[in-house]
Design brief:
2 copies of one chain form a homodimer. By secondary structure, the first copy, chain A, is of the alpha/beta class. Chain A folds into 3 domains: 13-56, Orthogonal Bundle (434 Repressor (Amino-terminal Domain)), CATH 1.10.260; 66-166 and 302-327, Rossmann fold (3-Layer(aba) Sandwich), CATH 3.40.50; 169-299 and 329-366, Rossmann fold (3-Layer(aba) Sandwich). Chain A has helices at 13-20, 24-32, 39-52, 58-65, 81-94, 110-122, 137-145, 169-182, 197-212, 230-243, 255-267, 301-316, 354-362; strands at residues 70-75, 100-105, 127-131, 150-155, 163-167, 188-192, 221-223, 249-252, 277-279, 296-299, 325-327, 330-333. In chain A, strand 3, helix 7 and strand 4 (150-155) form a beta-alpha-beta unit. The structure holds a DNA duplex.
DNA sequence: GTCGCTGCTGGTAGCGCTGTCAACGTTCCT
DNA sequence: AGGAACGTTGACAGCGCTACCAGCAGCGAC
């Protein structure tokens, strides 16, 4: 063969094989399964590849092997802090592995998700990470028919497609409300924005806890489909106060809203927590730094992303986890914004492991 | 040929061509350059593809055409809010185009960036988006030798590799300090974290403005290499106060730090802006909502990402922009946290277009 | 009427790699 | 000693698509 290089001047596997004095297929094996080679050839190929600065052509590999080394990730938003933490975990876990991440934004639309899923699946990804448990029937069918591992993240539910990692937003919201009850609060408002399925389940948890205590009233709930923001938190709180001035606590569906409520309280000289207690959700970094410090429900977002990607890669490589559904739990982090009425400082409530899954199954009305 | 389908059951271009009654190569052309086909064949191929649900095999396309439809993006952090806005812009602009985004995280290391660059370039990306202007000499050489369009984002400097979009952090910092001068402040502290090249240039801008006014003192500057956070803002501010209790304003290298300073002031009953003025950087959403509202330097992050990706795609397709270096400018958004001393409410300072580039060239000490 | 041009179409030959299967040498067992 | 079993290696034939070039018709110019 006359040519030594590809047109573009790149080093090919054949050159590496030639320098190492082995056949191309042996060199190929070195990169896919080094243990299959004798030590002598292995070192020869290794040094030849290094000397030539060989980088495999992924397109050729994908074409020949009929599969890619791409992990598809479908998330609903790039703006939301919550997802950037999850993504960081995913990227961290994929780094150093042979897999690369292909990210797409569903913009909270399950129709868009379905479209993207079709696109992804057509390229035969090595694995797929999808957000949540509320896919369309069509999406669900495609996922079940897919011949790659799939992991659903952000929450857990009774019918995993394959693997699943998250926590129960329903239980977490109930725990937050229980915490407020324990502090002596009764007229607890709910403030929520965006109202995606997970926020909706937080609302469901709040409603059920309030109903259990015979304290639920529809006018305590203020929500909007608008994307969340700190400013919006203030605005929703203003609405809430107008509907029910006697409120003594607010449970916010996320921390941005909580910060907005805090600022609005300050603007109106409402003391926190004396006049109104505030509880957020997610426990973003600033919550511990605010004045007063803000109570929140801690969720393990980075760990969720990282573990999801790690589990997925393990599964891709044939080592399926013995525990395909992982409940990462949550923890109510009690801070000044909700701890005045009682000096009571007993340990905060915590979400269980597999227990929460069972609890969810026992409460099917909230997960369909 | 006997087989009608690929092993995996996927529809191939050949099937589409057969159904449309044209040759495979004609069908292929339909997807790459529909105008080259006669109207009759075009519609035939189109409906055949639709009927069969054909999805092209990107790996085969990449292998045969020696190029991919991937835009590589190298950013230093996934945590930082600033980058999530930029990324959102990039993803939004790429959506609907044929290009997909391949993201990698350099973790603020130019050595890591060099390594990733080598990896990316080996796969022949259609284009590349890199952060900043501080690449290693090796990276720089690779970028200049690359046969794809490249755009540097986040800041502008005198020697673009190819295209460039951003603003002058140096000028923006000077404008922030000038604003504080105009409000009558003199003992202005600087608080910075992470100290990546762009934060460093903000510090340089602060230093030069302070020196111009003969007000610079080293002890007014508190920085750390630690990643930024709200809590850290408070801690750095405490340091600053310990070094110089007479301070009357703080310029924070970003908004998280500014929020931390605000909370720390509240904790210590320091009134803002009466006793100490605060100015942040980036103008994140919460700045307008805080109590008092916080002055900040607005930067067009989403627009930067969006425009960068749009310009890059245009360049990939052969339509190079007539203006390869774009200065998006900045704007000092004056709010309560820095506007008490004077009731002066004249228009805020704004970063110019190409002017800022020239200014940077005139100040080479800050860009090497 | 011939030539060359343009617009459209098709055939051939790979792109660089890997799946499959066969073949080889060696070891270990009976 | 013969044979099975294993570990290791290589030949062949594509993966699905596109670059390149050739061919063909239809047209206007000379």
């Amino acid at each position: 063969m006359g040519r030594k290089r590809t047109k573009s001047g790149k080093i090919r596997l054949a050159e590496v094989a030639e320098l190492a004095g082995v056949s191309p297929i042996t060199a190929s094996r070195f990169f896919r399964n080094p243990e299959a080679l004798s030590v002598a050839k292995r070192t020869r190929v290794e040094s030849a590849a290094k000397e030539l600065g060989y980088v495999p052509n992924l397109a050729a590999r994908a074409l020949a092997s009929q599969r890619t080394e791409v992990i598809g990730v479908l998330i609903p938003s790039l703006t939301n802090n919550v997802f950037s933490d999850v993504l960081r975990g995913i990227y961290d876990a994929s780094e150093g592995s042979r897999y690369s991440i292909q990210l797409s934004n569903t913009r909270y639309s399950i129709l868009q998700e379905e479209k993207l899923l079709r696109l992804f699946l057509a390229q035969k990804p090595a694995g797929l990470i999808v957000t949540g448990i509320d896919q369309t029937a069509e999406s669900r069918a495609m996922l079940e028919a897919a011949d790659c591992p799939i992991i659903q993240i952000m929450e857990i539910g009774p019918h995993p497609v394959d693997m699943m990692i998250g926590f129960s937003h329903y239980d977490a919201a109930r725990a937050a409300v229980a915490h407020l009850f324990a502090q002596g609060h009764r007229k607890i408002g709910f403030v929520g924005a965006r109202m995606d399925p997970r926020v909706q389940r937080r609302l469901d948890g709040y409603v059920s806890a309030m109903k259990d205590a015979a304290l639920f009233e529809q006018r305590l709930v203020v929500t909007t489909a608008t994307p969340t923001s700190v400013t919006l938190g203030g605005a929703l709180f203003v609405d809430l106060l107008a509907r029910e001035p006697e409120i003594d606590a607010v449970f916010c569906a996320n921390d941005d809203l909580a910060l907005g409520v805090l600022f609005e309280c300050r603007r109106r000289d409402i003391t926190v927590p004396e006049q109104i207690a505030i509880v957020g959700f997610n426990d973003l970094e600033f919550m511990a730094s605010a004045v007063p410090t803000l109570t929140s429900v801690r969720t393990n977002r980075y760990e969720m992303g990282r573990t999801a990607a790690t589990m997925l890669i393990e599964a891709i490589e044939g080592r399926r986890p013995e525990q395909p559904v992982l409940d990462l739990g949550f923890k109510v982090i009690e801070r000044q914004s909700s701890s005045s009425r009682h000096a009571d400082s007993r340990p905060a409530a915590a979400g269980a492991g597999a227990g929460a899954v069972n609890k969810m199954v026992a409460l099917p009305s909230t997960h369909d």
